Amino acid sequence: MTEPRRGRPRSFDREAALEQALQTFWDRGYDATSVTDLTTALGIGAPSLYAAFGDKRKLFDEVVRRYQDTHGAFTSRALAEEPTARRAIERILREAASEYVGRGCLIISAAQNTVPASHEVAEQLRYIRQHNRDVLQDRIQQDVDAGELPDGTDAKTLATFFAATIQGMSQQARDGATQDDLMAVATTALNVWR
Which CATH superfamily, name and number, covers 71-192? Predict the structure, then answer.
């Protein structure tokens, strides 16, 4: 015999709520987003939020994973699908120009101004950004090793340059740069391959 469940069943779509939480953190950043902001955006009470997602930090961790699997997945897709580092980075820059308009990148901007109590969030996002740069470096080095790029190409510096360009595009988007503005940045950055 099973015991009856206590409380009311969830009356909201968890996936839709997670996407709404993502949008809220993306717009405001981690520290500037309060639990009240989240419950308002999701249309649920605090007890429902905690029951469904745990605390604010656990919800943010889920949001980051969702972002990487959805809105931010264009980077990993380009690296997996394009035959060379140059083509992958070109695709990443062009897709960033489209994806970032108006709000930038969650991974780049969500913890720009965190309080000391949120240092773990800042470190988590810093780690993801550094990992992304390292993946670019590895891909560039593969092309050097395969003869696609000249011997002596500094894969680390090139990867750092493109990571900095992507981060700058994110901030420019948050500051109001248009898709055309960001596309011009992407095109200019790609001139380093020549």
Answer: Tetracycline Repressor, domain 2 (1.10.357.10)
